[in-house]
Amino acid sequence: MTGSDRNGDRPTVGPVRPAGPVRFLKHCLLCIGSLDVRMVGIWGMAGIGKTTIAKVIYERIYTQFEGCCFLSNVREESYKHGLPYLQMELLSQILKERKPNAGLFNKGINFMKDVLHSRKVLIILDDVDQRQQLEDLAGYNNWFGLGSRIIITTRDRHLLTCQEVDAIYEVKELDNDEALKLFCLYAFRHRHGTEDFRQLCGHALDYTSGLPLALKVLGSSLYTKGIHEWESELNKLKQFPNKEVQNVLKTSFEGLDDNEQNIFLDIAFFYKGHDKDFVGDILDSCGFFFGIGIRNLEDKSLITISENKLCMHDLLQEMGWEIVRQKSEVPGERSRLRVHEDINHVLTTNTGTEAVEGIFLDLSESKELNFSIDAFTKMKRLRLLKICNVQIDRSLGYLSKKELIAYTHDVWTERNYLYTQNKLHLYEDSKFLSNNLRDLYWHGYPLKSFPSNFHPEKLVELNMCFSRLKQLWEGKKGFEKLKSIKLSHSQHLTKTPDFSGVPNLRRLILKGCTSLVEVHPSIGALKKLIFLNLEGCKKLKSFSSSIHMESLQILTLSGCSKLKKFPEVQGNMEHLPNLSLEGTAIKGLPLSIENLTGLALLNLKECKSLESLPRSIFKLKSLKTLILSNCTRLKKLPEIQENMESLMELFLDGSGIIELPSSIGCLNGLVFLNLKNCKKLASLPQSFCELTSLGTLTLCGCSELKELPDDLGSLQCLAELNADGSGIQEVPPSITLLTNLQKLSLAGCKGGDSKSIAQ
Question: What's the pLDDT at 431?
Fold first, then answer.
């Protein structure tokens, strides 16, 4: 039973879900039959079905105990009547007496222990929300007789942890099939709806998101109603949430302190689905205590954290929106704004006030909006401004390269963006933006510069993709708290600012800034920078003469087709695993490349000006993949001075390689070698057969290669040899020794037909 189950008429039908949870609780957590005393918690958000599960367990096992008690609504009853009343009720049920002698309670907790410690009892404490309730009603395991079981349902996991319960069972949302059955039980009084209501049932399930309370309340409200009434009710819910559901959920919010309430509301309005640590940086800068606050919100089932992302049930998010909306009938006097019509009204009528702390405006599916920048003048406490003017094309959405990496190594996903027509128009040049901003996220910012008096010293994130900005700021300015700058596809940006006043910058994403010519040299000294993406900056000529970014993890310069030189690496940069220079105009790499001691992937694909590599390239002990595909001017690889066990993949396909180094055998960890279309490669050195780990060798299109090494049979790990279209005339007899060879392809070899060569 959920909170709403206790009042009003409900259909007399059996539970939909409890069989699985009850079976697990009974046999795995409660361990019915063992003689020890066990306390078990049932934990989950409001309305999730904790009471229902507890009720079913109680009904199934209570006969196995000498005394039983189901204390419902502990939270409400303790507030109304006090804990002594609940103690009396507990003993009344255990002793099976209607009115135990109230005078006995003068003896306090010791009397309860005297009554309980010799009895095998089953006690359910439903909806506990305070530590004192557990101390007065459940105490410790030694209060109870052998074989006793105490079950506690609560929204607060921390209470169960403090009570040191033996096990905690988390109740989660119903899956789609379970949700449909439960909804139909209340909407139709049987487990399956009729065909003509199928689509509407789907909309109802989308709204309720597997929450049993909402499924029951909404289903009951639609019972005996027609299709048009269903449509009207479901449309109404988009604007006016169901009060019965909201009232139950709101009790969890009301139990939070001010710090937790602010964090909850900011997540509900702005940061659902975002990286926890990144949001923590922003909200800590707002004066909130994010670390303890987010832990308490998670313990109280108001948020969940999955893969370091902040998750929140849709109805809890809707509750947050509604709480703020109900604070004032006037949109400009609310702390947070998200509804497009409300924001439109505030900006176009210039009715914003100091009460406004955050705005989230999604323009991707809205009409054009015209307003004066002065609309922000009165919003002096504005700390979060998010204006989205980008539409994600779901058909193009894909997981690909690591575009954003939070400093906790969390990989953010990259998606293709389709920039919609700029729908936001400002009447005049910018005059004011709040210097109180911590998060400025404005896709398609329509002006060429920021206001001259704009200096948000507390700013943590600056996200201005697709903007018309030409530059961020002149000279050196101090932004001590700024940790992320993203200006991707800002095609008017010509240069970056001096970064020396931004010592804590961790992410700099300038992907697709096609007019960017230079990056300020101060970038090379950003010791906390983790991710730097300059992909597709086609006009970028100068980067930095040297870098000492000791925290850098990802560096992407792919597509910087005019970048001719890679900077010197000053000092050890052990945290950079990936370096992509694909499509750049560099002619070589510095000897100091060996200082990238953590480098695992080096991508030099399509570097058509690359003429040589330094010997130090093979001193990179962590290097696993080296990509030199289509480097047409690269004729040779440097000699390898010592064994290099780490390198597993070497791509030389389409390169200008004439010969492999005589020391190629030092790559004794090499598993994959691609020499496809190396048309000038005439021979393979004898040391080639020392590549004892080689599993795949591709020689397709090597038209000048006439023969394979005589000792080819030494490559005992070789499983695949592709030499289609090569100049190979015959294979050595030792090929018969390749016992692991699974695929041999010699089609179209110039030296003869495939069949005779294979023979």
Answer: 61
Residues pairing with 484 in the sheet: 461, 507
Beta strands in 62-190 (DSSP E): 67-71, 121-128, 149-154, 167-170
DSSP, collapsed to helix, strand or coil, labels residue 322 as helix
User: What's the CA dihedral at 93, 95, 101, 103 to 10 degrees?
Assistant: -90
- Going by their DSSP bridges, the two strands 417-419 and 411-412 should be labelled as unpaired
pLDDT of 744 over the 70 cut: yes
Q: Which helix (H) or strand (E) holds 554?
A: strand 554-556
Mean pLDDT score of the chain, rounded to an integer? 84
Contact present, 501 and 478 (Cβ < 8 Å): yes
Give the angle subtended at the CA of 564 by the CAs of 558 and 565, to the nearest 5°: 95
How far is Cα 514 from Cα 538, in angstroms, rounded to an integer?
5
371 and 427 Cβ atoms separated by less than 8 Å:
yes
How many angstroms separate the CA atoms of 589 and 557, rounded? Answer: 14
Q: For residue 123, how far is the Cα from the chain centroid?
A: 40
Beta strands in 604-663 (DSSP E): 625-627, 649-651
Q: 170-194 burial by CB neighbour count: b if 16+ within 10 A, else e?
A: ebebbeeebbbbbbbbbbbeeeebe
What pLDDT was estimated at residue 318? 93
Q: pLDDT tens digits, residue range 746-758?
A: 888 865 444 334 4
Distance, C-alpha 753 to centroid of its chain: 55
In DSSP terms, which residues pair with 568 in a beta bridge? 546
Task: Name every residue whose Cβ is closer than 8 Å to that of residue 436 and which is 6 or more positions away in sequence.
Answer: 380, 381, 382, 383, 456, 458
The 3-state DSSP class for residue 275 equals: strand
pLDDT band, very low/low/confident/very high, at 402 (cuts 50, 70, 90): very low
Q: Look at residue 58 in the predicted model and tell me its pLDDT.
A: 92
Measure the CA–CA gap between 174 and 205, rounded to whole angstroms: 10
Query: Cβ contacts of residue 432 below 8 Å, gap of 6+?
Result: 373, 374, 376, 377, 451, 453, 454
3-class DSSP state for residue 696? strand
Lowest mean pLDDT among 394-408, 476-490, 502-516: 394-408
Tokens of 465: 């993709």
By 3-state DSSP, what share of the chain in percent is helix, strand and coil, each rounded to 5?
Answer: 30, 15, 50
The overall longest dimension of the chain from CA atoms, in Å, is 108
**pLDDT tens, position by position, 643-682:** 888 999 999 999 999 999 988 888 989 999 999 999 999 8
Place of tokens 């690909």: 400
pLDDT, tens digit, 9 for 90 and up, residues 285-312 = 999 999 999 999 999 999 999 999 999 9
pTM: 0.80
First to last CA, the chain: 76
Task: Take residue 272 and report the two structure tokens written for it.
Answer: 């659902």
CB 24, CB 169: distance < 8 Å: yes
Residue 612 one-letter amino acid: S
Can you list the positions of beta strands (E) in 421-553? 424-426, 439-442, 461-463, 484-486, 507-509, 531-533, 546-547
DSSP 271: I
Q: What is the pLDDT of residue 675?
A: 92
Q: Side-chain half-sphere of 449: how many Cα atoms within 13 Å?
A: 14
Asked if residue 681 lies in contact with residue 657, where contact means CB atoms within 8 angstroms, the answer is yes
* Cα gap 667→673, rounded to integer Å: 11
* Buried/exposed 429-458: b ≥16 CB within 10 Å, e otherwise: ebebbbebbbbbbbbbbbbebbeeebebeb
